[in-house]
Design brief:
heterodimer; A: about 110 residues; mainly beta; seven-stranded mixed beta sheet; four-stranded antiparallel beta sheet; about 0% helix; about 55% strand; B: mainly beta; six-stranded mixed beta sheet; 12 strands; about 50% strand
Chain lengths: ~110, ~120
């Protein structure tokens, strides 16, 4: 158990809908990362937050957004969902900006 | 930009065989290098890491040496077990880049070990 908690574990939704994925980092970790794992793109970095502020952005679509709250948990919002958004979404956390990242078990999103 | 290339799988081995999974990288700075493992239905777990040239990371019988001259970080194990069956990801983190602490992953290599 990495200490990073992601909910829900599985999510099935229809095209055009909006969903929210939640991540609770390890106790004491200030940095949260979101990654998307799909068969065709592999593991892609989406976005990073550090102590509530956005620090880095990767291949995140405009339909996707995220935030980190004062209690340091983070949410990834996916809207106007398309079939191609079906993937495993991982959250990771680390103590600082350049320290080892620990991954949650992921949320499997299926868009039908 | 920063990137990681690892050998395509799948790799299928018999128990007690030797394993090598090749990984090379491209980075503008001085990256840290990692191997992560993903068991079926689970998240990624850090297997080993190396933070500077010539460092050797090791864990659970796996080893990888940071080779700056060949920009490589190959994963090796002398005798694999059925329980090693998983997907292995090579990754780098470049602390000097604009995206501090972010990981760049290879495509992953599926390893299956038969008894």
């Amino acid at each position: 158990d990495s200490g990073v908690t992601q909910t829900p574990k599985h999510l099935i939704t229809a095209t055009g809908q909006r969903v929210t994925l939640r991540c609770s980092p390890r106790s004491g970790d200030l940095s949260v990362y979101w990654y998307q794992q799909s068969l065709d793109q592999g593991l892609q970095f989406l976005i990073q937050y550090y102590n509530g502020e956005e620090r880095a952005k990767g291949n995140i679509l405009e339909r996707f957004s995220a935030q980190q709250f004062p209690d340091l948990h983070s949410e990834l919002n996916l809207s106007s969902l398309e079939l191609g958004d079906s993937a495993l979404y991982f959250c990771a956390s680390s103590e600082g900006l350049n320290t080892e990242a620990f991954f949650g078990q992921g949320t499997r999103l299926t868009v039908v | 930009g920063d990137s990681v290339t690892q050998m395509e799988g799948p790799v299928t081995l018999s128990e007690e065989a030797c394993l090598t999974i090749n990984c090379t990288y491209t980075a503008t700075g001085y990256p840290s290098l990692f191997w992560y493992v993903q068991y079926p239905g689970e998240g990624l777990q850090l297997l080993l890491k190396a933070t500077k040239a010539d460092d050797k990371g090791s864990n659970k019988g796996f080893e990888a040496t940071y080779r700056k001259e060949t920009t490589s970080f190959h994963l090796e194990k002398g005798s694999v077990q059925v329980s090693d069956s998983a997907v292995y990801f090579c990754a780098l983190s470049d602390p000097r880049g604009s995206t501090l602490g972010r990981l760049y992953f290879g495509r992953g290599t599926q390893l299956t070990v038969w008894p």
